[in-house]
Amino acid sequence: MQVIYISEDKFQYDIHSLFKAFYPTDTVRMIIGKPGDNPEKEKDISEGDEISFVEYTENSIKVKVSENLSDEKEFLDISKGEGSVSTDGSKGSLDNSKNTLKKLLYTLLSEKTGKKLPWGNLTGIRPTRIAMNLVDKDRSDEEIADYMKSMYFVSDEKIDLSIRIARREKEILKDIDYENGYSLYIGIPFCPTTCLYCSFTSYPIGAYKNIVDDYLTCLEKEIDYVAEAFAGKTLDTIYIGGGTPTTLLPHQIDRLLGYVHEKLDTSKVKELTVESGRPDSITREKLQAMKRQGCTRISVNPQTMRDETLKLIGRQHNVAQLIESFHMAREEGFDNINMDIILGLPGETADDVRYTMDEIKKLDPDDLTVHSLAIKRGSRLAEILKEKEIRGFSGKGDVADFNNTEEMMRIAASGAHDMGLEPYYLYRQKNISGNFENTGYARKGKAGIYNILINEEVQSIVALGAGTVTKRVFGYDGRIERCDNVKDVKLYMDQIEDMINRKRELFNV
Ligand code: SF4
Question: Are 357 and 218 in the same domain?
């Protein structure tokens, strides 16, 4: 276990994230105060645990990174030399202090572990934002690279990726009117079964099918609100996600999308995506309904092309079904099909990833999203890991045997490149395997615009349905405010008027 004593509750999240990035399989415990101050949190600290300290004083931040509790002489104490940094309490300096602290901690942990992290000391979920901001200021690639390297220790490979993505995003978004436009997200919180790693709002359709029509009625009430509040605004993109929207029956797809077209001005919509993620939910009739309703982009998600892994992660479909669904979608005229894969799935090696990429190449999707497995709170995977108190390998075929590696990331990136797909958006998650990232690749003209908009947070997105979050982006200062809909699907339906009122308050209409 890594134990970090910090003298006050400041930069806790950043410190925790950095330690977690260097020690992904260790528990990282933050304790505010000095040793002995917090007996409840300290009771199970043992000899083998590593103890570190971050101490804030009026004029400096002191950092000690320890080897173990009983070996204090080995502590690396940088507080008495160049390690001290000044703070004067103002906001600008506070940010500087945070950056300086992260640089120091990164250097110490890197020396101690002998590791370099691909994203350096960046712990946030949108590392490309830095490159985006500098591209907006017309900085050259060299200037951006120098900055990302000296400030954050980002690797050359990730710097190059960030710059390419930033420039491509700028090009794709150039026709979007952030101020007068908006995007719409509709969540369908039902799935055929629950995947091992899932932390989304998802209910098994088998047990919930009787409430789906009432759920759609509630969505229609929210759509009525959008029609009233956003009259005169431009609807740029629509994304139907979940859950699995293709758990809806064909007539329910017609009903939902038909209502959207009837109530909202969809004449300027640049992209209408329906996630059809689970092949076990796709039928020809559903694809035809989506096509009829103007859907321009779908996702058919393999996650892996290995049947054994699919079983292990609870997907209940096989590779043959995936291939059949993909061909069916092509036959029905879908010319923008995304596929999602996950690297670092239980039991998978670099060879498995190579195999998956080779099989996907045969299908030739237009868009590929490469995820690194993330252990999300509330997922079955997180619970299993907690129960077994294991992190990492515990035997072939065990769900706890997972790891994403640089080699896997490279195989996926070069596979995407071979298919003519270029990176266009990127984000990271907490507890992401290997401290890597999720990257979207697409053919020219096929990039998912909504994906960029939600990632860059440059346009308001109105989100309807259980467990969704609406974001209002204030054009003049880039401020963002949010309101959420409750996760529980029955509560959402019972409290639908309250869900709408929350949006009224957020948008003042
Ligand atoms: S398909 Fe997606 S939303 Fe549904 S259970 Fe799997 S991960 Fe969760």
Answer: yes
Tell me which residue range forms the domain holding 51.
1-95
- As a whole number, mean pLDDT of residues 65-90 equals 43
Burial of 408 (0-12, 13-18, 19+ CB in 10 A): buried
Strands 469-473 and 438-442: unpaired
The 10s digit of each residue's pLDDT in 89-136 is 334 455 567 888 888 889 889 988 899 988 999 888 888 889 989 998
Q: Which of 289, 275, 291, 278 is nearest to 330 (CA)?
A: 291
Residues 180 and 60 reside in one and the same domain: no
Token pair 């699919």 is at which residue? 310
Task: Take atom 2 of ligand 1 and give the residue whose Cα is closest.
Answer: 243
Residue of 188, 193, 195 to test ligand 1 pocket, by largest number of atoms within 8 Å of CB: 195
DSSP lists the bridge partners of residue 433 as none
Residue 320 covered by a domain: yes
Q: Dihedrals φ, ψ of 200, to 5°?
A: -80, 170
Q: Cβ < 6 Å from ligand 1: which residues?
A: 191, 194-195, 198, 200, 202, 242-244, 277-278
Give the pLDDT of residue 398: 63
**Mind giving me the DSSP string for 321-332?**
HHHHHHHHHHHT
Whether 58 and 195 map to the same domain: the answer is no
User: Do 476 and 356 sit in the same domain of this protein?
Assistant: yes
234: β partners: 181
Beta strands 234-242 and 438-442: pairing type? unpaired
Residue count of the chain: 509
For residues 88 and 212, state if they share a domain: no
pLDDT in tens, 145-190: 999 999 999 999 999 999 999 999 999 999 898 889 999 999 999 9
Q: Compute the average pLDDT of residues 9-15.
A: 88
Query: Would you say residue 443 lies in a domain?
Result: yes
